[in-house]
Design goal:
alpha+beta, 4 strands, about 35% helix, rod-shaped
Amino acid sequence: MRAIPRQLLVVLMALAALPAIAAPRQVTLTVPTMDCATCPVTIRLALMKVPGVTKAVVSYRHRTAQVFFDDAKTDVAALTRATEGAGYPSFQSDAR
């Protein structure tokens, strides 16, 4: 068996120590209990408090929230917990 050159070993160890590369994601949540024109404000504020969320666009008309986030910092479950905590249960309707 051949030994791994020391320089290559150092490079491989450095690469292994790097954090996972975050990928920006977008998800659309359906929020069926939105029933007034001020609901989107409450939902948007709740989503923007989630670490990793960069943008939230909430539509009363469509009863949806488009959320843009860093998948290394949060996930869809945290987003739905945030809306539920604000009094508006939601579920994922699609993901990109």
